[in-house]
Amino acid sequence: MAETVEPGHYSGKRDIRTNAVNYVIELAAIEKAFAGHQVLKKVSLRVKEGEVCSIIGPSGAGKSTLLRCVNLLEQPDGGNMIIAGQYLEAGRSHSRRDLLTLRRNVGMVFQSFNLFPHMTVLDNIVLPQRRVLKCSEEQARTRGKELLERVGLADKADAYPAKISGGQQQRVAIARALALDPKVMLFDEPTSALDPELAQEVLAVMKEVAASGMTMLVVTHEMGFARTIGDHLVVMEDGAIIEQGVPEQVMSDPAEERTRKFLSAVNR
Amino acid sequence: MNTFAFWAKNFPQMLAGLGVSLQLAGLALLFGLPLGLLLALGTGSKLRPVRWLSIALVEIGRGAPALVVLYVVYFGLPLLQWTPEGFVCAVIGLTYTTAAYTSEYIRGGLKAVSPGSIEAAQALAMTPVDVLRFVIVPQGLRVAIPALMGFAIQIFQVTSLAYSITVSELTAVASGISSSSFRALEIFALAGLMYAAITIPASWLTNKVEERITLRQ
Predict the structure, then answer these.
(1) Strand-by-strand arrangement of the A240-245 sheet
(2) What is the Cα Rg of chain B in Å?
């Protein structure tokens, strides 16, 4: 049976038996208010397995809040979602087990890196493996060193976070999240706190992660990354998605005037 | 007998007193610091009874003079059909004072832990207990270390109050020698020097540690 895919939309990995597209993230009508201010207005979004989805938009659009709802660092007020096969409903209190299962599947990289400052780079990667995956110390260290190699920081294993650059800290943070073998990775403005040169080294690592087939949801101001690495582009404004589609297409010929204005401001 | 000969003659006895003072301070810290950590966590607890009980214990412990606490323990415990010797009472009383004061320093340290690293630990699927144990407490204690070391010096000096409940610590020994020799000024001067011999190097050490911690950040 022939399946239909939206024209021009990256098709993602498919289930071998059913040939259906697998969604790793499905958000339906997610709502969130802070102190009476509606930050997310029934936002729905689907991210396919293996897809790199970038979210752009002006500050205050609700991009980071949306991202933080995915791993429930922020509790949505309304809507529901399926994350890596786990159904979660807003407004319900989630059991600790549900939360841990969700967060096992969802890795997150923060704007401010958020490494554990009192531990060496390697220990930052070892600790969650030991505590969450219950790996042996030796296994965790071996894996940690492999990951540091992968992000090009094998020589910084014994350094403390304060002694390495922001770009290096962010690469460690990516390695730390990857160590738990997540099914999807969230990136919350991963390069916004970095100068352009350091941002490039982080983007190179993200590109490599994307190439490995990782599903990624990325809030970013890096238009180059969204265009070349991203498979799907979402434009948010004032708590809602105003436009989405193939990055190249949205960027060169936006349908919405607001998108056009935002893009011209960013590209200036 | 000149002063130095007088000091030399009484020095062994005084040294034994100093040993008792150090033991009192050491035990008060050994038991008081973990209790202080528990109280610090308790005052931040979401469970209202736990929070209120912790706050009450801290406020009473900080509000009441250490001497009063010692008397309450010394004269109060016998009412509970337990009559421990003065030393044990002193350890109990000083432990409580230590716990109450250090809980405030530790609470301040815990508050200074960057919310980002806590959030990262949560996002890494660490359990709340693990977040506390591996991320919040170690970072918070690090921040609190200079203040805690300063307190350790203070509680060492406060051990002299145990004199009032029959413990033969340094001040008590000096007092005994004073009343048998009538050379109060000299013997208390020696006691002061001996206290200072501990506290002054300890203060230097505190400053060094504080410098190192500041440099790390």
Answers:
(1) A106-109, A184-188, A215-219, A52-56, A232-237, A240-245
(2) 21
In Å, what is the CA distance from B91 to each residue of A40, A200, B56? 57, 60, 21
Non-local (6+) Cβ contacts of A30 within 8 A are A40, A42, A43, A44, A66, A69, A76, A78, A79, A81, A90
Best mutation target among B124, B131, B214 (most A Cβ atoms within 10 Å) is B124
B117:A116 CB<8 A? yes
- A197 domain-assigned: yes
Determine what percent of chain A is predicted with pLDDT higher than 90.
87
Residue in chain A closest to B121 (alpha carbons) equals A128
Cα A63 to Cα A239: distance, rounded to the nearest angstrom: 8
Residue A14 has a pLDDT of 54
At A231 the pLDDT is 95
Could you read off the pLDDT of A173-226 as tens digits, one per residue? 999 999 999 999 999 999 999 999 999 999 999 999 999 999 999 999 999 999
CATH number of the structural domain spanning residue A161: 3.40.50.300
**In-domain check, residue A3:** no
Q: Which residues of A touch B124 (CB under 8 A)?
A: 103, 107, 128, 132, 176-177, 180
In chain A, residues with a C-beta closer than 8 Å to the C-beta of B216 are 160, 162
Is there a domain that residue A4 lies in?
no
Contact call for residues B95 and B28 (beta carbons, < 8 A): yes
Cβ distance A131 to B120 less than 8 Å, yes or no, reads: no
Q: With CB atoms and an 8 Å threshold, state whether B142 touches A110.
A: no
**Interface predicted TM-score (ipTM) of this complex, two decimals:** 0.89
Residue A72 lies in a domain: yes
Could B139 and A114 be called an inter-chain contact, meaning their C-beta atoms sit closer than 8 Å?
A: no
Contact B124 A103 (CB under 8 A): yes
Domain coverage including residue A45: 23-267
Domain with residue B181: its CATH number is 1.10.3720.10
CA atoms of B118 and B141, how far apart (whole Å): 15
What pTM was estimated for this model as a whole? 0.84
Number of domains chain A contains: 1
Q: Domain count for chain B, please give it.
A: 1
What's the domain range around B79?
A: 17-216
pLDDT at B215: 65
Is residue B4 one of the residues assigned to a domain? no
Q: Is B145 near chain A, with CB under 8 Å?
A: no
B117, part of any domain: yes
Q: Which of B123, B125, B142 sits opposite A118 (nearest CB)?
A: B142
Q: Is B155 a member of any domain?
A: yes
Residue B87 domain-assigned (yes or no): yes
User: Are residues A118 and B138, on separate chains, in Cβ contact within 8 Å?
Assistant: yes
pLDDT, mean of residues B178-190: 96
